[in-house]
Every structure is written in C-alpha cells, then in structure tokens.
Design goal:
Helix 2 links the parallel strand 1 and strand 2 (about 45). It is globular and about 60 Å long. The longest helix has 17 residues, at about 240-259. The model has no long low-confidence stretch (mean pLDDT about 95). Helix content is about 50%, strand content about 15%. It is α/β, with parallel strands linked by helices.
C-alpha cells in the first residue's frame, strides 16, 4: 500500500514535534492559496469564518495548494459542522472549528471529522482519495489518522473544559484564537492579543495539551508574535493573512524606494 504524502505530511510532522508555519488566506480568489503554497510556508490555511472566501472557492484552492506539495487546512464558519466532511473529501489535511465552547460542540465536530467507528463521517471522498494514492478501503482505514480536527479555544468556557476537549476521541489538536481570548480574559474590555493574560492562558493550554501529546496551533498577527508563540510551545502557527502580507510587502517596498 502506498502511503499518502501531502495529506499525511501535516499529521506526521506534528507528531514528530516539528514547528509548522502556515500561511493564512481569506481573499476570495483560489489562486492566492496556490501562490502562497509556492513560498516557504509549511502549509496554507483558508479562512471561511471571518474571510470572504466561500466554500466553493476554498474547494478550488485545495488542489492548487496540494499540487505545490503543501497541506491545506480550512477554518469553518461558527457551527457549520456539516461542511467538515466536504472539506476533508476535497483534500484538506485539517479542519479548524471556531468557538468550541461546550462538549456538545466538540462531540459534533469530532463526529463529522472521523469515519466510523470513531465518528460519523460519511463516505464520498473524491479529491482526497485521488491525492492520497490509496485505494478506497486503504484510505478509509487510514484517513482518521491524517485528517486532523482542530478545536478552537478562545473563551473562558472553552478553557474551563479544556481537559475534556483534549480527551475526546476525534479531537486531534486545539487552535488558540488570541484576539477572542483577549476579549474573554479582559471581561469584554478590549481586544489586544498581546496582553499578559493571553500568554499566560497559552502557557496553560500548551501544558495541558502536551500532557496528552496533542499539538497546539495559534493564529499570529505578526512575525514577531509568531516567534513568541513558537517559544511558548505552539507546534503550528498561522501567520497574518494574505491581505496583511500584501500590505506589509507594499509598505516595505515603498519605504525602500522613498525612504
């Protein structure tokens, strides 16, 4: 049996403890994800929660990313668990679900993410099956291991049940949303992902996840914060956004020219 390459690479590298740096794309143009995948990022994440990119555009971006030899991930809009299997069928290596604030949220997400007997994902893989290089039954048996589910931890409610989320079969990793976490930890007083309370919460999340050997991923608004998050123990960091990278590149070029 041939082993999946692009589809399994993210799971394999996270299991080894590698540090994964992912691009973040939300502009509704599939080719942007493909362009980012050709740079030295380890993966590309497509954001449907806050970005205007649609499910159809994400599905068209996935093969462009995979063709560059990089795994694709996608973040759902809040509660849209019905699209988890559709994204996995299309060939993402991981799905990120925001606002997992109850165990019912976590159980529903896990159920859609995994094939039986672990979950309830239904059969219908097309892009992922072709990309995997496996026959149907081999893919069915292996996919639960390399199709990753990331539950977002970004509220006090989620932190309170963190150990239960981490212990749930079918949840492979957690993903920290620092901005929403700052809102929660400040009692709704401000949004500032750099406040000390956020870093303290990240240390707690990393410690609890490390105790059960599950990776922590975090969104970083800057390269400096990405370095901070790796230092705090994150195994995957998603960097800025496609629009942010464009602005940063434009500003650097203009500064070079005009001084």
């Amino acid at each position: 049996m041939s082993k999946p390459t692009v589809l399994s690479s993210l799971a394999d590298r996270l299991a080894k403890g590698d540090k994964i740096l992912s691009a973040w794309s939300s502009i509704p143009e599939p080719s942007i994800g493909g362009i980012l995948a050709q740079e030295a990022f380890d993966a590309v994440t497509l954001d449907m929660q806050h970005g205007p990119i649609t499910l159809g555009e994400v599905i068209r971006a996935i093969p462009l990313i995979n063709a560059a030899g990089k795994p694709a991930l996608a973040r759902l809009p809040v509660g849209e668990f019905q699209n988890v299997s559709k994204l996995l069928d299309a060939g993402v290596s991981g799905v990120i679900a925001p606002m997992i604030n109850t165990m019912e949220d976590a159980r529903r997400f896990a159920a859609y993410s995994k094939y039986p007997p672990m979950g309830e994902r239904s059969w219908g893989s097309y892009g992922a099956l072709g990309t995997s290089g496996l026959d149907a039954n081999s893919y069915f048996k292996a996919a639960n291991g390399f199709s990753l589910s990331f539950a977002m931890i970004e509220t006090r409610e989620a932190i309170a049940i963190l150990d239960d989320i981490l212990a749930l079969p079918g949840i492979d990793a957690v993903f920290v949303g620092p901005s929403d976490l700052s809102i929660a930890l400040s009692g709704g007083a401000l949004v500032d992902a750099t406040i000390p309370e956020v870093d303290e919460a990240i240390r707690h999340i990393v410690a609890r996840a490390s105790a059960v050997n599950k990776p922590v991923a975090i969104y970083a608004q800057s390269a400096e914060r990405a370095k901070d998050f790796f230092a705090l123990g994150a195994r995957m960091v998603t960097l800025m956004s496609d629009a942010g990278l464009m602005r940063a590149g434009a500003q650097a070029a203009i500064k070079t020219i005009r001084g």
